[in-house]
Amino acid sequence: MKKNLARCVLAGLLIIFCPGHGFTLPPESGQREAASLLTLPDPQDRAQKLILNKHNIAGYRELLLAPIASWIEEGVFAARLFRSEDFSWDEAFSGVEEKGKNRVGFSFDQNFSLVSGAEWTNAGGGALPFGRAEEVDLEEDLEHKAYQILWNAQAMESGARSLFYEIKLSWIGVQSILRQSEGIFYRKHFAVQAPELAAVTPAPSPSPVPEQPLAPVSPGELFRQEVLQLISPPVVFSYAHLTWRYRGMHDDEGWVYSPVIGASRRVLSANRSDALLGGVLTMDDLFVWSTKIQRVSARVVGEKELLVPVPGLSTYAAEPEPVSLEGLLIPPEIDAKKSAAEEKNPDNQKAVAVPGFYQESNGSRAAVLFNGESRQYPELAAWVPSTVAFVPHRVWIIELTPKEPLYSAGREILVVDKESLLPVYKLAYDNLGVMQRVVIGSWGLASSKNENTKFPFCAFVLAVQAVGRDAMALVTRQVFLIQPQNSSFMKRADALLNIAAHGKKEATKSVKAEDEPGAKSTPHPQPEGAVGEEVSPED
Predict the structure, then answer these.
(1) What is the pTM of this model?
(2) Which residues pair with 392 in a beta bridge?
(3) CA atoms lying within 13 Å on the CB side of residue 118
(4) pLDDT for residue 105
(5) pLDDT by residue (tens digit) across 449-460?
(6) How far apart are CA 404 and CA 406, in angstroms?
(7) pLDDT (tens digit, 9 = 90+) per residue, 266-308?
(8) What is the CA radius of gyration of the chain?
(9) How far apart are the C-alpha atoms of 318 and 271, rounded to whole Å?
(10) In the predicted model, what is the mean pLDDT of residues 181-189?
């Protein structure tokens, strides 16, 4: 009786929270889901093709996010389906748990900032503060459960500590790719009480904009720093967006450097919800959800099975590669001539890298390709991620309400994968309850040859307008794991985390990959497990 009552309450909440785009809870018996799952190809059988399109959607409707189901019915979206990946996300947790074995005694303060015992000194660097999905599901309070999920997602994404992405931004219409830009995205996480924090100083105020001095913040409170910098085309060269985030309630500190005015300006944390360079993506859409946890009210409103996108069916090979910082504006004092020690140790210039493996029309590579890259299927929208597989996973559904009065979204629905503990979908609504956009993200799992290093990385994130259907995508071309032994690379990358380093007019010296010892000029082979062909809407 109590179980049925609980199901009715959840169903009612979903109808209220998602008007017109509600999530249907799975049938009581689970037979309809099981019947669909049994028809999906096994990941070992790459040759077998099952394309979900408008002709066969009826059998899989229960497994679809509502907006995606609508796109498929309209004939603008199709997806290749598999039963599962041929690896388990548990492989990622083994390394995480070795770094953070003490997972007891975690709680929240009144602001839902994470509170832990003194023995836990690795927050933001590999620990799962609330354990795996089965442990989180023991929490009965739906609000506390939501924050546990959000903090776990942050811990999973930051398990590699620091990742340096070479990216491509694409502004995409329904019929074609409108324009593109290349750049980098660097996100660095800090451990609690880490010795490296002793050297962290307060961020300099961007001149000449006058402003009130910030309240003093302990360096140990720094949670992460990130920078998005664009390199091409020339009109946006050196554009940069920086954010410093703290563990507690202290607001994000953010800056934007504009090459148009040749100056930087401070931005509010709410500005992270603004459209990026006139597109659809926002800074808080990166990695699907990048909002400060304490700045939202959160509550779990459901759980079900959904088809989620995966860039490849196998783990990605991660190998030491020479690092290229070609084209980046790095201060001369940082980008100086290599020291004698570095000259004697060429491996110092290498970092664990995961390369993109799909050939683009200009000869470069990317983690995924969109339908607009080749236009082989003009009946599908140009923004369809046609080289991505969709597999069924259990997910949590969380309702988020921003506390920032100036935040552009009035409410968001976040979908978090229970297997990877990472966000895969987000629906953003305005203050009137009208859907603004759908955000889709896909995560791969990288593994070094000796399997000593495993870390998740974001292969792409796509934001599609609910009305008009224009889209914007961030695609990973290559991602580097930054470790302390990569001292030369780390110094250059860390320089980008200081707003004072942006906009310097002095000539800088770039590090070219082809000048590095051991640099490869041959293209990377497509790894096993890649879904290496575009989907046909009629298959």
Answers:
(1) 0.83
(2) 307
(3) 0
(4) 55
(5) 776 788 899 999
(6) 5
(7) 999 999 999 999 999 999 999 999 999 999 999 999 999 999 9
(8) 23
(9) 35
(10) 93
Return the structure tokens found at 222: 């720094």
CB 228 within 8 A of CB 256: no
Full DSSP string of 332-368 = TTTS-PPPHHHHH-GGGGEEEEEE--EEPTTS-EES-
Question: 285: closest CA among 472, 21, 18, 19?
Answer: 472
Q: Could you tell me the two tokens for 481?
A: 């794991």
Q: Which of 497, 503, 489 is nearest to 201 (CA)?
A: 497
Whole-number Å distance between alpha carbons of 225 and 167: 18
Tokens 């009786």 locate to 1
- In the block, which residue shows the tokens 């792409």? 460
Query: Could you tell me the pLDDT band of residue 471, with boundaries at 50, 70 and 90?
Result: very high
Cβ atoms of residues 457 and 446 within 8 Å:
yes
Burial (Cβ within 10 Å: 0-12, 13-18, ≥19) of residue 178: middle
Please state whether beta strands 177-189 and 114-115 pair in parallel, antiparallel, or not at all (unpaired): unpaired
Q: CA geometry: angle at 289 spanning 234 and 238, to 5°?
A: 15
Question: Which two structure tokens, joined as six digits, stand for 135?
Answer: 């442990």
Token pair recorded at residue 294: 């304490």
- Average model confidence (pLDDT) for the chain? 78
Helix count (H) and strand count (E) of the chain? 9, 21
